[in-house]
User: What shape does this take?
Amino acid sequence: MVACIIAMVIFGILGLFSAKYRPFAKEAFSCTFRLMTLRPCNTNLDERIKSSITARVMPKFPKFAKFIFKYFNAISAIFVILFFVSLAYSGYAAYNIAVHGTCNPEHPDQCMLTTPQGVCSETCQQDCKCDQETCNSPDYVACGGDCDCEQNLCNKSASAAA
Amino acid sequence: MDIEEIRADFSVLERKINNKPIVYFDNACMTLKPKQVIDAINDFYLKSTGCGGRSAHKLGAEVSERVEETRKSVSKFINSKPNEVIFTRNTTESINLVANSFNFKQGDVILTSDREHNSNLVPWQVVANKKKLTHKVVFSNPDMTFNLEAFKKELNPKVRLVSVVHTSNLDGYTLPVKEIIKLAHGNGSLVLVDAAQSAGHQQVDVKSLDADFVVMSGHKMLGPSGTGILYGKQKLLSELEPFIVGGDTVESTTYESHKFLDSPKKFEAGLQDYAGIFGLGAAVNYLKDIGFDAIHRHEQKLNKQISGFLEKLPGCKIIGPDVSQRSGITSFNIDGLKYHDIALMLNNLSNVMVRSGQHCLHSWFNAHKLSGSVRASVYLYNTEAEVETFISAMKQISMLR
Assistant: This one.
């Protein structure tokens, strides 16, 4: 039954781009809602997902298929837990960005969303190539390798300088 | 019987899903339709659309004529008189018609077997409650065959009607209906035979059976869905009060009264499903051309192949008696696997389409403390190669235990 929660998220996202997945998303939502309100899920969506995955795996990896089939609920539960844990971490990171300007206030350099951009050590000249030679190594890394020349400055160094 | 020639008439069988052909083993629920049936349905809409039994113009007359032709075809099919054939929507409606039209008296007893489809159980339960009747069940022998001794014991002057299934949709077992009817008639009781699973698979000869009422569905014998047949002995039909009344059931009305037409017209209220009736006629003719002996032999051969494999499959339990006593239906369970999972896996692995669940036999499953079963049912267009596909998929599925 817990597979419905993951299915709701996956089909919900897929449903944004393709109408094909919307009925599944709706079905998964209905199942999740019933689950949340302590009622048994009245759809066999999880069974259909289980058999569909098992049938795909079975011809090539029968033992793995058996493992999936046998422990589908446990695997689903692990995915649900992982989903909620990563959701919690994402929420915490978003909070830190909003409050502290970085997702990791203790080690700001470890936050890949807000790593300080650094400045190229030398201003690029006309037709220069903002590569590892012109932007010295740490700054090139800080630029994330995105060192197109624009206004004689590396893009990111320019924005960082600004 | 040339299977390939027959298969060519069923366009659905040409369909592929995920580049694999479909294997349709859900015939106990609904059979596929040959092109002759589809052509007959189309004929009505493309060439002969009109109001039968009412309008005198050419199209109307043509429809009336073809409906009566179909009635004759159906009557020959079951060996009755044409005016003993009533067109209904399905078996369920036919049984409800009898249940609600029959002149029951308080205290009457209705007997059914323990393996009745909900359609041959609920109408009797409802009418028993309404009219203060008693509904009794005759339980099967331990080997799942009909218990004639138990049936004899239940017979008494109060038993007014016996309503039994001919071939069970649970396991394909055919009840000894002829003996049941003989015993019931000896007791002064009438008998309704639910032939939904037998008509189209074996000869249902109402005269030879001496059944009082026989009911069947078109969709289980190559015909269109929404078509059914109620056969009743002429004398009995004339005594029945119509259940659904209105247009085309009456000879005349005044503001205060009405006079019903004779049977079968008085039971066929409102505009009928003419296209469906045409299709049903085509289905009946198609089956007659092939012949029931050939169909029955073919089903038995395929079921022996299926049951022979399942009997040896570890953990597999087949419901019902030995395969020699069953038609083309096999219900089974595998220890450690859910019936829905087996059905879904068959579908996902090899496009093998079977039914899973309680097959509208909740009463039997509840009594036997089973939550359901997988049911594979074959018909005239299925092949040994398809059975091999089923077997191969089942071998893989059984490894999931």
Residues 72-100 of chain A form the longest helix (29 residues). Residues 116-128, 134-140, 148-162 of chain A have pLDDT under 50 and may be disordered.
